[in-house]
Amino acid sequence: MPPRKKRKVADSSAKEPAKKQKLTTAASKSTSSFKAKGKVKGKNGEVDKPVYTHWLMKSEPESRIENGIDMKFGFDDLKSCPDQTEHWDGVRNYQARNFLRDEIKEGHQTFFYHSNCKEPGIIGVCTIVRSGYHDHTQFDKSDAHYDSSSKPDNPKWYMVDVKYKAPLDRFVPLSELKRLHQDHVAKGGPLKNMALFTRARLSVQPVSQEEWDFIIELSKTSV
């Protein structure tokens, strides 16, 4: 799997948590957050390509030491950061990098997904507060994500800044999402093409508006 993105254990002396925010779907608000068709310039000219404003980003909530660094960074760690904000560093997959560099923008929202743990799944929602910029860890020899082939005048890797928004009404485990995905593939449904299953190895993934709304509503139901 691609290397994980967070290495910092948050400062427990950060600001008091903000009040819980209400999570909404497209049907309940006026917004431009949807999957639309946009013109993207390709090798042979402009091509139609989906434009996403919602994402899923994976991080590890449990301790795992890599090169002497604890890779743990869960949703509560983000909540404890100054201003409940942190950069999303360490992504070393080119497709995920392209999302961070080219497509994820300030104001977009992302699911925070707990990965590589006893019970993986979606725990909450974050807001992107800074669009893609150079990931400093690629130049840090002491960092687990150091890349000797990346140069300051031609950096390979990018990151964004994310801000804690709110937990889901309930944790939505991977096992439940997988069962629904399989059902939707067979019978039709919003999760049939979800990247969590069709591009499972990516640590940063696009989420369609339909998928987003379905999962938000799903989290409001009892198991």
UniProtKB/TrEMBL annotation:
Mostly located where?
nucleus
Q: Which Pfam families match?
A: EVE
- Domain EVE stretches: 54-218
Question: Would the keyword Nucleus turn up in this protein's UniProt record?
Answer: yes
Q: Where is this region: Disordered?
A: 1-43
GO CC, one annotated term = nucleus
Report biased composition (Basic and acidic residues) as residue ranges. 9-19
Q: Does the UniProt entry include the keyword Amino-acid biosynthesis? A: no
Which keywords accompany this UniProt record?
Nucleus, Phosphoprotein
Which InterPro entries does this entry report, sorted A to Z? 5hmC_binding, EVE_domain, PUA-like_sf, THYN1-like_EVE
Cell location: Nucleus
Query: Superkingdom of this entry's organism?
Result: Eukaryota
Functional summary from the UniProt entry: Specifically binds 5-hydroxymethylcytosine (5hmC), suggesting that it acts as a specific reader of 5hmC.
Q: Identify this protein by name.
A: Thymocyte nuclear protein 1
